[in-house]
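User: I'll paste a sequence; please echo it back and then give the predicted structure.

Assistant: Echoing your sequence first, then the prediction.
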Amino acid sequence: MSIDGVDPAACEGLESETFRVLRVARHGNKLRLGHLRGNRFRITLRGTRPGDIELARAGLAELERIGVPNYFGEQRFGKRGANLQKGLDVLAGNPRAFARRMPRRVFGLVVSAVQSEVFNRVVAARREALDRLLVGDLAFLHSKGAVFAVRDPAAEQERADRLEISPSGPMPGPKMTLPEGEPQVIEAAALAALGLEVDAFAGLPYGMARGERRPLRVPLTDAGVREVEAGIELSFGLPRGSYATSALRELLVDTIWFAN
């Protein structure tokens, strides 16, 4: 008997240096969007020059130490930022009228593009010190995905230096906890730059854009660099919801920033 066309007997016993398949069976629950711990990437850079492998190795080591700016990638915003503009139009107009004309998936996509742009602007505003906690921050605990208020940054900074915690930024919505002090000022400015206020996402159809906190940086793990015939191959892991393009942006010279 096969499982979705896969013969379990052909899978059982498969192994490598790091794993062995003991048993294959259908799980009782469906695998849903977001049900993963992270992703591993293997990317080949072509057209490299002598010495680039050392630069790549040093760059990845630095990202392992300080983390990767957690920008949303350009694919989040659609071609030429079309999703972002549609989302801004929705929030500036009558969201329920837009919802009646849009498929639910598209409506959620364009609204989330606006949330993502607000977040990217906060990352950019704090780009030079993403590892530094501020009074009033909501620190993101990477091991649990929870946040807590920072009252004494000096007392928590050692954990941030170990990349156990990071400052968080906004995915705006009515259920999102707001920071205080300077972090709140930065986030309010990011909203204002788009002509939005903190309650812009309240009362949307389908219960969308309820809001959450997202870390301003993420750990990069299991970094590797090797020469291949085509150039240099990079390998690394990132948590779910983060983008390999964000890591590449930190490593490459000739890149275009995808924030709008």
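DSSP finds eight helices and nine strands in the chain. The radius of gyration is 21 Å.
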